[in-house]
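User: Some background: our group keeps a shared notebook of sequences we're curious about, and every so often someone picks one and asks for a predicted structure to add to the entry. Today it's my turn. The entry only has the sequence so far, pasted here. Could you supply the structure so I can complete it?
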Amino acid sequence: MNSINPSFTSNYTSYTINQSSSQRTEQTSTSSVSSDSFTPSSKSLDDDFAKADQLKQASATSKVGEKSTSDPITLTIISTNDMHGQYQLMPKVAGVIDALRERYPDAIVVDGGDSTYNPPFSEVNEFGPITDVLNEMKYDVITLGNHEFQYGKESTSKDFALKLDADVVSANVHDKSLKDNLDGVKPYVVKDVNGLKVAFVGLVKPKMHTKAHPNVGKDLVKESTIEAMQRLMPEIKKEADVVIALTHQGLGDDERMASHIKDISLVLAAHDHVSTSKPIVVGNYPSKTYIVENGSHCKMVGLSQLTIAPETHKVLDFKFKQYPVETYGVKPNQNVAKIINDYEPVDPHHR
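Assistant: Of course. Here's the predicted structure to add to the notebook entry:
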């Protein structure tokens, strides 16, 4: 059995969000992202679960004064993003997701794209074992990052989207026209969760090419994320009570989009490798949008919980918690570990 365990651990960039000034302070590190509220111990998940249970006892009167004649509905989402082929950490990511899913069996598990790109490994192995890994981790919805298009749109469909059990969503990239979705990809999907119809819309930054890879995305028909949401929101609102965007474009673009498009309750962000310990909030009630992101390279798993008014479907309360993967006291998922260890990669240094 070959173990992938690639040791491509370059510096990554993370940010802390200053809510009062909306300024971002850049921090570059080679160590794990940490959380101030986290104390590593084998009971850490249980401690957090005890605190999180308070969310289920939300008052029928919201913080903004809206009264409800029936109990609010809790919507729980587990999220990852920008894992970038850190296969040595994925069994632990899966272990955190397993523990959270056991505690919140009605949770929806999503990924924000760029799950596999990790040169030089991915330059010769391309998608590698990632689809088998993601299927074993039982994601519900996955959006496409720019690096899912690294090898051309046919490979995006054939070697990635069509091999996944999850719904793959991306609303602003198309095959030959705005009416043509890529094979295996939908613009959005609507899930029934606790009596709510919840739409998950996928969006990716249209500019995908770089100097090193000048042709990435050139075979696609693209529109801006704002244009795509303006086009789709009337249709989505007919089908869904709550709209959640899985974006891969960066927080600045997310904030601009949220300021233009009303009725997006939550943006699960990706692309710029930012860790938001607290949510960014755009707009005011009842058109308030929360934006959160989980860093990159398998450092964090995020847990978002929205308390929804059953009559108006507005967000009464929002809670967000990040779980540092390397230090949480959970068992790695052995099935994911086996998939990775059984994969026989091409060595990029000995081709």
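Suggested note for the entry: The CA atoms of residues 276 and 293 lie 5 Å apart. Confidence is low (pLDDT under 50) at residues 1-43, 55-68.
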